[in-house]
Write a structure and sequence with these properties.
- By secondary structure, this protein is α/β, with parallel strands linked by helices.
- The chain is built from 13 helices and 35 strands.
- The chain has a 5-stranded parallel β-sheet with strand order 6-3-7-8-34, sandwiched between helices. Strands 16, 17, 18, 19 and 20 form a 5-stranded parallel β-sheet that branches. It has a 5-stranded mixed β-sheet with strand order 26-33-32-28-29, with no helix packed on it.
- Strand 11 and strand 12 (274-283) form a beta hairpin.
- The radius of gyration is 42 Å and the shape is elongated.
């Protein structure tokens, strides 16, 4: 315990006043001759002792009353852990961290949590005094460099008026860390951190601590009692191959993060701003559901769309954007040493003038001079592969989706140390070869995985087998659980397998396409399988690279021909920003990082749209699971109650004042003294 007015303690000298009065008011005894009083004294002795005891008690009470009153005027305080009564007149540095994520848009008392939070800042400002400095940090800011203090609190209030919530995920821990630098550099003794938030569990780690000492940490929770919120968390294209005039299927995952069940809620699908499908659903709290939509696109090109739900308490997570492309022509590059290396694939992809592919044939000795970025899919025949060419292939695979077809004549060790090592492919362990190519000595297909997307749409009815080709030569690979075998051979080794590589996919055929390898190219399954395989990889590339979250960097590998063109990013708010490709390791890239609002971002070259991306908010902001006050106290927060923020802060600053209790104790003793004094007077009169 300590005192705010130490000088008043000199008043304790007044405790001697009752003692002096008592001593000076004692009457002197006079000796009067009288007959024997022996029996009378014995009779009155116990009464005299009672009177003296009461007089002593009254004296003690009066002295205690004086002591208590003096102590009350000295303003005694009980020191809290963060209190420092020596800092009563010291300056204060206050850092206010305000949660401005979209979870704060939840309605509350005809307003919103964010408006309530702003009002609390005004209450905090009223506590500050002239000369104090206040810093305002927002939980969604990406950087806190050069944050300036508000010395004029009216300017702080004006800056809050037009502040809006953000689509960015709240990171209270990052903002609290930024406050450490401010407290470290301040000269003020009082250091106070105010965090105003709904305190979603996604905004703080399981534990955190301040490295800067002597900082008082206050939490001002603003939470709704009830909330109605259903969010669209994810949208997926079911189709692995996209074609115009064919049914496209979409899946949308919706979740009820509110406290109330929803019944017959409407979900609508919009494509290029036109509604094409809708459905209704019901959900209990903390449940999710997958919705299914179907529509038929009647043209090719770039498509942008979104799933939108009916309005609820949180509007900003009711819409989820997506985009996809139905190519008019899929650009394909075929790399080979001879015409024979590419002719079979070329014929399969270009059966007539109405083909969906635009095929370019490239000589393997010349492919390094060709920009592979212009192709969505590349196929090549690996034959006498040169290790120095790995760099070009590797860069392409990072950016796009590959097909590696027709393993030819090469050294196994050369393949294993170059391509297999770079792309993490299974190593080749040997080769099966029937040099006579006789009818009774060959391999065939094993149990084909007809569920793989490359087979979808080839057959009218489900298949369990097809006519087997004769395989005269095929490479054997080591066993690996990291590949997806599409077609196995009858000896158990893969004939056609799929492998993720970097950001792309590789489909490897362990045999060649010439007559010396097999008669596969003459089978009826060959042409449709090639067409579906190339379409599958092209669509996979488009769908995988189109969805991003807020603040994700958009990146696109561009052809060198676009360098001199006028490129613009068209944002969802229809603002246009010029962009320029950048040369990075692996090729020419276009980068754009200002993705601070959700929607579909488009890349235009002049008046022509050449690419698009979909940016959505992070689902974690829609999860309304809060830290309660007891949990916040474990983080060493002093949780301020709404009823009296000012008094709570002062108690933390200086400690809890006890003068009221001292005055009350003095009044109780005064009443007791009066009762004793009256009893004493009555006794004296009776005597």
């Amino acid at each position: 315990m300590s005192f705010l007015n130490l000088s008043i303690l000199f008043g304790l000298l007044a405790v001697a006043v009752p003692l002096l009065i008592h001593l000076l008011s004692r009457s002197k005894n006079r000796v009067i001759p009288f007959s024997s009083l022996t029996f009378l004294l014995e009779l009155q002795q116990h009464k005299v002792r009672r009177i003296k005891l009461k007089q002593l008690l009254i004296l003690i009470l009066r002295m205690l009353i004086v002591i208590l009153l003096v102590l009350a005027f000295a303003r005694p305080i009980f020191k809290s852990r963060s209190a420092n009564p020596a800092d009563v007149n010291a300056g204060t540095t206050a850092v206010i961290v305000l949660d401005n994520s979209f979870s704060m848009t939840v309605p509350q008392n005809n307003s919103s949590l964010f408006q309530t939070a702003k009002a609390k800042i005004n209450e905090i400002i009223q506590i500050m005094r002239q000369g104090d400095e206040v810093y305002l940090l927002f939980s969604t800011d990406s950087s806190y460099l050069n944050t300036q203090a508000f010395l004029n609190f009216e300017n702080l209030q004006n800056s809050l008026k037009n502040k809006m919530t953000s689509f960015v995920v709240s990171d209270l821990n990052k903002a609290i860390d930024a406050s450490q630098e401010i407290f470290h550099n301040t000269v003020n003794i009082n250091k106070e951190l105010y965090v105003i938030s709904d305190f979603q569990k996604s905004t703080l780690p399981d534990s955190f601590s301040l490295t800067e000492q002597d900082v008082r940490i206050f939490a001002l929770p603003v939470r709704p009692e009830f909330i109605s919120n259903v969010s669209v968390d994810k949208v997926l294209l079911v189709n692995t191959i996209l074609e115009k005039n064919k049914v496209l299927e979409l899946e949308a995952v919706v979740a009820n993060y509110g406290t109330q069940p929803v019944q017959n809620k409407l979900a609508q699908l919009f494509i290029n701003d036109e509604r094409v499908a809708q459905t209704t659903f019901s959900l209990e709290p903390d449940q999710s559901k997958t919705l299914f939509f179907k529509f038929v696109p009647d043209q090719s090109g770039l498509f942008s769309g979104y799933i939108v739900l009916e309005d609820d308490d949180v509007l900003k997570d009711n819409k989820h954007y997506f985009s996809f492309t139905i190519p008019d022509k899929i650009p394909v590059g075929l790399i080979g040493q001879r015409n024979a290396d590419t002719q079979f694939i070329n014929l399969a992809l270009l059966p007539d003038d109405n083909s969906n592919f635009d095929v370019t044939t490239i000589k393997s000795g010349n492919f390094e001079n060709v920009s592979l970025g212009q192709f969505q899919v590349v196929a090549c025949r690996i034959c006498q592969f040169q290790p120095k060419k790995i760099t070009g292939y590797m860069g392409f695979c990072r950016k796009w989706w590959w097909i590696v077809l027709a393993l030819g004549d090469f050294d196994l060790e050369d393949f294993n140390s170059t391509i297999a090592q770079q792309f993490h492919l299974p190593k080749l362990t040997g080769v099966y070869e029937n040099k006579l190519a006789s009818d009774d000595q060959f391999l065939s297909f094993g149990n084909i995985d007809f569920t793989h997307p490359v087979f979808k749409g080839i057959f009218k009815e489900p298949q369990t087998k097809i006519k087997n080709p004769h395989i005269f030569k095929a490479f054997q690979t080591e066993k690996s659980g990291d590949i997806d075998v599409i077609i196995p051979l009858s000896n158990g080794f893969p004939f056609l397998y799929e492998k993720n590589a970097g950001q792309g996919k590789i489909i490897v055929m362990t045999s060649g396409l010439g007559d010396e390898y097999s008669d596969f190219t003459y089978q009826t399954i060959f042409a449709p399988l090639m067409s579906r395989m190339f379409s599958y990889l092209a669509v996979h590339q488009q769908t995988q690279a189109s969805e991003y979250n807020i603040l994700d960097e958009l990146r696109l590998s561009v052809d060198a021909r676009l360098v001199d063109q006028d490129l613009e990013i068209i944002r969802p708010d229809n603002q246009a920003e010029k962009v320029t490709p950048t040369i990075l390791s692996g090729g020419l890239y276009l980068k754009y990082a200002q993705t601070n609002i959700p929607g579909n971002y488009k890349l235009n070259s002049g008046q022509t749209q050449i690419a698009q991306w979909s940016v959505n908010i992070s689902p974690e902001e829609s999860v309304f699971k809060y830290y309660d006050n007891k949990e916040l106290e474990k983080f060493h927060f002093n949780v301020l109650k709404e009823s009296n923020i000012e008094q709570s802060v002062k108690n933390q600053r200086f400690g809890k004042e006890l003068w009221k209790y001292f005055v009350l104790a003095a009044l109780i003793l005064l009443i007791l003294e009066m009762l004793l004094f009256r009893e004493k007077g009555d006794s004296a009169s009776a005597e």
